[in-house]
Design brief:
6 domains, Rossmann fold, about 45% helix, binds adenosine-5'-triphosphate
């Protein structure tokens, strides 16, 4: 039976590829036509043509991306459920949807509601299906099929009910490449429910290491972009991860699902223009991350508006004027009434102060017997504006400020910090102290953003340009709508996409490009990975980026390594959810199956974590390893032994952060071309990393150097070791010249 069935599937799938090729040829032809169009010298028509060309180019790339594993599954419907599909009982599921020349659907996109049964159906609840089939392929060829028949009698004993077990295990044991790949063919039912969960509100996904949280978060982003395309196309989706190396690890997943329009950012990249990767010492990060910093920044901004204590003498064009503190105070009052942010309110302040000074000067001139009428006022105002004395006086009262300068001053001027923080101890203040030239750290990013929010646009001219750019964007969309009508391609091309390509004014680029560059952008949805690490200040920043509070938050409280991390979601998310209980403003889902780590290794990691008092979420590993955990005294022996088993696949050597360079130096001579340090190692077969760098990543094999050192290195050292121990998909080696941390070995 299998042979002829396999043949049948090969035939069907090769029909799908033929259709894919046809569509690709069609898009290529359309691209050629557009390029050949003579549009004359008119700029608008040229940019229209280029924008159309870009859309066809994107379409061609998208069709090319899905070339591998185009179709990966089939469900067989019960006769009644199949009535709506012309009596056809089979539905094929793939990475994109395809229709034949008569517009009959021949392949369903995995994200459409009808495809959900492929992931959700079980023997106990078959959801209108009779059977599910996985199509396993190499290149364009189907090599194997795997059937599940939903018949109660065929169901084995109760236990883990894995969907498409053979296909899943093949995916899980495959050698790792250093890049995460999509799991679209083998998404499990508990994962699918989360992926398709409602866009609205805050969804928190808790799960132990390797339970697929990252995979689920990325597939959810692809799902939301597909099913809420209209809404999310304009607002965009932001995906936040812990580090650059993590982003590098996940960056290929969404393009392979045909989605390119998301913004990926590490927590150090959330303030446009700065890319911070340096971490502060834990005690410093705790202070900078606490919500009290928001009040401090607000006080700091306020303290830069100062009414002088005494009157000042000003010289303007040879005349002497007295600047009364009351005049400054009046102008400030007016400016504050405008409720604009600091720099923008300053414009009101300066205008008002100059108007008052102009009147004062005119009165003074008149009292000296000069004739001054209204038409002279503007000249006087200009003289005042360009007078050095006036500028100094007004700037002293209200200095234009950038967020960078405000934060640098806060750290570099101990006297000022002390004035602003009367309740703090000297030791606490000393934690913030540093030179003005020191680069910004990851924990400075939310402080800069907080300051920017209160300061507003530094460059008010620039702000006007941005407003103009927004209007230009509206005009571009209107033009795009007209062009679509003229070219008779309604339904194939979207006006927003077309306008993306018009590239006029500042609003150029795709939604994602514009969003990433704009601090004030508000996203339609935000996905946060390794969310247990975020500080209240980081949550404040993210909330500003999505005031509608549509979030997918994934993480594992037990893996928290940062000193400011909380021990439960309710308190970790306080900034986002206030004091609301679960179910009110946020919902919690849990993932319980460990797809990454073999059972021997995950058992040891869990035992160690529990012994050290971490609140681990127990999970069930889906497979065992051929290799027992190995313990050795020699680093070189550990790496050589592992490479002797296999030089293919990836190895991470994880050491206490303070030891990483030393470990790298010891290994470099022998493994020169194959080894890299930190994120540079992720493209090599051996990477030397700290536990922090290894967060969220996975490797075929892991060597942990000095596990006790990892535990004792920081306050949350046991969490760091738990992270390190749960990175391998195959083998774990521990290098120690003494005892292992408690719990690693069975009692
Ligand atoms: N349904 C699935 N099919 C195939 N592979 C899967 C599936 N679910 C998860 N995996 C694989 O399991 C591994 C672990 O997944 P992932 O990195 O998303 O876990 P995680 O919960 O984010 O882990 P951690 O908390 O340790 O970072 C990945 O290689 C992922 O591709």
């Amino acid at each position: 039976m299998t042979k002829s069935e396999l043949e049948r599937e090969r035939e069907y799938v090769s029909g799908l590829y033929a259709r894919l090729d046809e569509l690709q040829d069609l898009a290529t032809m359309q691209l050629g036509q557009v390029r050949r169009q003579d549009v004359g010298g008119n700029h608008q028509s040229r940019s229209e043509r280029d924008a159309f060309a870009r859309i066809y180019e994107d379409r061609i790339v998208q069709l090319r991306e899905v070339n591998e594993r185009l179709a990966f599954g089939r469900i067989e419907l019960e006769a009644t459920a199949s009535d709506d599909v012309d009596g056809d009982v089979h539905r094929y599921i793939g990475r994109i949807g395809l229709r034949d020349a008569d517009l009959k659907p021949v392949l369903l996109d995995w994200r459409v509601p009808q495809a959900s049964a492929f992931y959700q159906a079980t023997a106990a609840n078959p959801l209108g299906t009779r059977a599910r089939r996985h199509l396993i392929s190499a290149g364009r060829n189907i090599t194997r099929i795997e059937d599940e028949v939903f018949d109660a009698e065929l169901l084995g004993e109760a236990g883990l009910e894995l969907q498409g077990e053979g296909a899943l295990l093949a995916a899980l044991t495959a050698e790792r490449t250093g890049r995460m790949s999509d799991i679209v063919a083998t998404i499990q039912a508990e994962q699918d429910r989360i992926i398709r969960s409602d866009l609205k509100g805050i969804l928190v996904v808790q799960g132990g290491p390797g339970t697929g949280k990252t995979a689920v978060a990325l597939h959810r982003a692809a799902y939301l972009l597909y099913s809420h395309r209209e809404r999310l196309r304009n607002s965009g989706v932001l995906i936040v991860g812990p580090s650059r190396s993590f982003l590098q690890y996940i960056e290929a997943v969404l393009p392979s699902l045909g989605e390119t329009g998301v913004v990926l950012a590490s927590v150090g990249q959330l303030f446009p223009g700065i890319d911070a990767a340096t971490e502060d010492a834990p005690a410093v990060a705790v202070v900078k991350g606490s919500a009290a910093m928001a009040e401090l920044i607000a006080r700091a901004v306020k303290s830069r508006q100062r009414v002088p204590a005494a009157a000042q003498e000003l010289e303007v064009n040879g005349d002497r004027l007295t600047l009364d503190p009351q005049l400054i105070s009046n102008a400030m009052h007016r400016a504050l009434q405008s409720r604009k942010p600091y720099n923008e309110a300053r414009v009101v302040f300066v205008k008002n102060a100059l108007a008052q000074l102009t009147r004062q000067w005119a009165d003074q001139l008149r009292s000296q017997g000069n004739s001054v009428d209204e038409s002279d006022h503007s000249m006087l105002r200009e003289d005042l504006r360009s007078s050095m004395d006036v500028r100094v006086a007004l700037n002293t009262a209200w200095l234009p400020l950038t967020p960078e300068k405000l934060v640098q001053d806060l750290y570099a001027r101990p006297q000022w910090l002390a004035e602003l923080t009367p309740g703090w101890t000297d030791e606490k203040r000393a934690l913030l102290r540093r030179g003005r030239d020191a680069p910004f750290t990851v924990s400075d990013i939310p402080l800069l953003d907080e300051a920017a929010e209160l300061l507003g646009e530094y460059d008010v001219v620039n702000a006007a340009e941005k407003r103009e750019a927004k209007q230009q964007r509206r005009r571009d969309i209107e033009n795009a709508e007209r062009a679509i009508e003229n070219m008779d391609v309604a339904g194939q091309v979207n006006a927003e996409d077309l306008a993306d390509g018009f590239a006029e004014g500042m609003a150029k680029g795709t939604t994602a490009e514009r969003a990433a560059a704009d601090r004030r952008w508000t996203y339609g949805h935000i996905v946060v990975d390794e969310a247990q690490e975020l500080s209240p200040m980081q949550w404040r920043l993210l909330l500003r980026r999505c005031p509608l509070r549509s979030f997918t938050i994934v993480g594992d409280i037990a893996q928290a390594a940062s000193a400011s991390a909380s021990s439960d979601w309710q308190s970790a998310l306080r900034t986002l959810i206030g004091s609301s209980e679960q179910g009110e403003r946020w919902r919690l889902e849990e993932l319980t199956v460990n797809y990454r780590t073999p059972s021997q290794i995950s058992a040891a990691a869990e035992r160690m974590a529990i012994t050290h008092g971490l609140a681990v979420t127990p999970s069930t590993a889906v497979r065992e390893s051929k290799w027992p955990i190995r313990v050795t005294e020699s680093l070189l022996d550990a790496v050589r032994h592992d490479r002797a088993i296999s030089t293919e696949g990836t190895l991470a050597v994880i050491a206490p952060a303070g030891e990483v360079r030393n470990v790298f130096a010891q290994l470099r001579t022998e493994f020169a071309d194959h080894i890299g340090l930190g994120s540079h190692g992720l493209t090599r077969s051996i990477a030397v990393l700290s536990p922090q760098d290894a967060k969220g990543l996975e490797f075929d094999s892991v060597v942990i150097v000095d596990p006790r050192g990892v535990v004792s290195e920081s306050e949350r050292g046991a969490g760091a070791l738990y992270v390190a121990m749960t990175r391998p998909t195959q083998r774990l080696t521990l290098v120690t010249d003494g005892d292992l941390p408690k719990g690693v070995l069975e009692a």
